[in-house]
Amino acid sequence: MQILILYGNTFNINAKELADKAVELGHKVSAGRISDLSSFVSKKESRFWLGREDVTDTDICFVRSFGPGSCEQLTRRISMIEHMEFSGIRVVNSCYAFRRARDKYATQCMLSKAGLPTVETYTTEDLDKAYEWSKNLREFVYKPILGSMGRGSIKFEDPDLAYNAWKMLNRLSQPILIQRFIENPGRDIRVFIIGDEAVGAVFKYPCTGMWKTNVAQGGTMKKKPVPQEYIKLAIRATNVLGLDYAGVDIIESDEGPIILEVNGSPGWQALKESTGVDIAEKIIRYTTESLGI
After folding, report:
1. Among 3, 71, 89, 211, which residue's beta carbon has the most beta carbons within 10 A?
2. Residues 252/194, Cβ–Cβ less than 8 Å
3. In a 3-state reduction of DSSP, which class is residue 225?
4. Which of 151, 246, 244 is nearest to 201 (CA)?
């Protein structure tokens, strides 16, 4: 089977593990930056190249990132991945499911529409409206609408400090996304879903004195029994967004479990280390088996 793995600028350890595991399982693999992918469409045929390599006969394409770029560049890449789907290539995660999961605003809308517990979220491009809204909250978090690994998320208690930060964001043409800060018992939960199965579930703990539990921010993962209620919630969230696999972050609050994020391109190194589960192999096997192979 011909497998294509697309990433942003960096062939990181997760993308490399997918490639290595696919080769180990007997598949032919090509991997490269999504910006190096070219395409051709006509009424007679569709063709695709990764650099100079013709990858038209790809059976499965794993998209790990749309990569950095201008609005026009990202628009082309999204349309090109959709073009691959139209051409019969199995894309994982699928183009628009991946896009929705990448977009925190779209994720909240989809989950809320399905009746799942989500974080109260306010978005705007108006500084004064953001300021007025934040004054109604004791603590709140600004998040980049396309952020990941906790980077750029800032917790505020003072609306005036937040306003000064937002002025800089406004100059950079960045929208403002505000979420109510939710107290937790000093931990969050990460559930890794593939298909309809939770292949790993762990508790995430922040560094001392920190509020972010992201491993990229110094947090740690520990394998402990996770209530089935949280497992089922993570599976539902993944299905609602139409993802083949996802990392779902859930917080234990006084109001019950609340979904913080659904990551359509999750890393799994810390989870693999804490659970012993070979995530890359499970993703490859699930995807090939879904094609009846």
Report:
1. 3
2. no
3. coil
4. 246
The CATH superfamily label for domain 100-117+184-290 reads: ATP-grasp fold, B domain (3.30.470.20)
Q: What is the pLDDT of residues 226-272, one digit of tens each?
A: 999 999 999 999 999 999 999 999 999 988 999 999 999 999 999 99
**CATH architecture entry for 121-180:** 2-Layer Sandwich (3.30)
Could you tell me the strand order of the sheet in which 53-54 lies? 37-41, 46-50, 53-54
Percent helix, strand and coil across the chain, each to the nearest 5 = 35, 30, 35
Whether the full predicted model's pTM is greater than 0.90, yes or no, is yes
- Of 10, 85, 11, give the one whose Cα is nearest residue 48: 85
Percent of the residues in the chain that have a pLDDT greater than 70, as a whole number: 96
Q: For the chain, what is the mean pLDDT?
A: 92
Long-range Cβ pairs for the range 200-207 (8 Å, 24+) = 200/268, 200/271, 200/272, 200/275, 200/277, 200/279, 201/226, 201/230, 201/231, 201/234, 202/226, 202/271, 202/274, 202/275, 204/249
Within the chain, where are the H helices?
13-24, 71-86, 95-102, 104-113, 127-134, 159-171, 228-240, 269-275, 279-290
3-state secondary structure of 39: strand
